[in-house]
Amino acid sequence: MVRWPIRIKLIVGLSVVVGMMLILMGGSIFGLHSFHISYLTQSDQLVEMGASVDLIDRVFRLHAPREGTVQEKDELVGRVVEARDALLKYFRYLKQNSIRGNRANSGLDELGLAFLIDDDLTSILKELEPDSESAKPILPGTSYYVNEHPEMLPQIEPATDLKHRIDRLNHTVMLLPKELFGDFYDVLVMSKGQYLTSRVIVWTSALMVLAMLCGLMLLFHRWVLYPVRLLQRGVRRVARGSFDYKIELNSGDEMQDLAEAFNDMTAKISVTYADLEQQVQERSRQLIRSERLAGVGFLAAGVAHEINNPLASIAFCSEALESRMGGLMSGSVPDHPDHRVISNYLKMIQEEAFRCKSITEKLLDFSRCNDIKRERTDLASLIQGVVDMIRHIGKYRGKTILFQPKEAVMAHVDSQEIKQVVLNLVVNAIDSMDAGGTLRIETRYHHGMAEMAFSDNGCGMSPEVLENIFEPFFTRRRVGKGTGLGLSICHRIVSQHHGEIMATSPGEGKGSTFRVWLPIHPSEIGESTEARDRSHGAAASAVPAAASGVHAVS
Ligand SMILES: Nc1ncnc2c1ncn2[C@@H]1O[C@H](COP(=O)(O)OP(=O)(O)OP(=O)(O)O)[C@@H](O)[C@H]1O
Ligand SMILES: [Mg+2]
């Protein structure tokens, strides 16, 4: 589509308006001009006709003297002079109209008649006053015309005396109205033609202007009204919260640029909005988890402390009983079937007591607030130490741990605590794998943090499991195996370090990856928050700092 800026569109619109005005003006001026010409022609023709009527009247008053008296002669001379004046007057109008072009023809016929009338009047005057100086034609060209155009003389008998001359004059002058009326009729026909032409022109121009007006309205709608309405609708929709609404405008001008800029803006707002919403949800989840952790930490500290001593007593007593029962049994009936039952039960009591003890220890650990001693630590060698230790544990044989650090990755952490995190993550990964499984550990610097990644090809996690793994006591291991505190402790430690821990899994049976980011340098915020954490005591220390993030992503 051709791109026309608004400036060009305005110029086109204005040109159409100017064109309309010119056409209207042209049509009107032509109509007025035609009317004016027609009016002038008719009025001039009428004036000429009036002069001719006066001339006829004067000529009709001429009568040959009956008695031939001087008085009759003088009277006739006077009437001839009047007739000549009337002829002169008529001639002036005739000439004026011919020069102006206000007649249907050239007016030569009327001119010829005027010359003939002049010739006859001059002859009459000559006959009445042969010696008079004024007995000459009053019209210029009469003599020439009469000599040159003898055929124009009316077909009457040649004039022999005054009476005949007057009769011939009467006849000639009576030809004048016929010519003039014929002429006037032609003028009327011409005026009618002009009127018809004007009508056609006025109608055509009016129709043209109407068509241009319709075109202009269409252009105005397409270039101005429609884009503005679209923009307005878009702004309203976006204001109502539909950030995915797109303004589809192809006007090819600045309005389209505006719509595209608006679409870009809403797209960005939409992304930001979605991101903010996700962040709010994430933060809300963290807050709930933190609240829960705080409560659990507080409760756990108290319960674990109270239960620890009785559990130790139970374990001690059962051990003591076992050793004493051994002596007693050997003295009595050695193969009594109850011997084995008693010894098994005592073992079970010991095992379960120790298991409970380890749980309470973990709980205490979970709610503990040690003095954190952070220092520059090489995460690679820390992980290596944990891996070497794990390899010797029998139940993890048959599973591979791949860790080949290329360089030292330094972090500002408490090595003992981070070791615990690594141990928990490695044990979890190994637990999740069947024989032949592989755990891959990698370290690197990433976005100004030290990163540890633990990727296994074990049982993986469903979205529901991923959602809850950092909750205390959440476990999916077989009953009696796990406490569900390992990752909560990891979370607490990483949070206290102002780091982040994130779990991802493509789904069940597809393995899992845990990533931990730890700070490289001691940060001011970190130290001050740490001090605050410490002052909040044991329970509060279990609450992850709001600034740190824990993500579980499927
Ligand atoms: N690498 C992993 N692969 C699959 N699932 C895992 C993995 N790590 C953790 N999980 C899931 O997260 C749950 C919680 O782990 P967490 O370490 O907190 O508790 P636990 O291992 O069950 O018990 P413990 O307190 O003894 O560690 C596990 O029960 C398991 O379902
Ligand atoms: Mg665990």
Record field, number of beta strands:
8
Spatially, the strands of the biggest sheet line up as 2-4-5-7-6-8
Which structural category do the helix and sheet elements fall into? Answer: alpha/beta
Q: Tell me the number of helical segments per DSSP (H or I, 4 or more residues long).
A: 13
Question: Percent of residues in beta strands?
Answer: 5-15%
Radius of gyration: 63 Å
User: How far apart are the first and last residues' alpha carbons, in Å?
Assistant: 46 Å
Shape: rod-shaped
What characterizes the major β-sheet? 6 strands, mixed
Structure report:
The chain has two domains: 6-212; 370-553, Histidine kinase-like ATPase, C-terminal domain (Heat Shock Protein 90, 2-Layer Sandwich), CATH 3.30.565. β6 and β7 (512-519) form a beta hairpin. The chain starts with 5 loop residues before the first helix and ends with a strand. Helices cover 66% and strands 8% of the residues. It is an alpha/beta fold. The chain is built from 13 helices and eight strands. The structure holds adenosine-5'-triphosphate (ATP) and magnesium ion (MG). Magnesium ion binds at residues 424, 427-428, 482, 486.
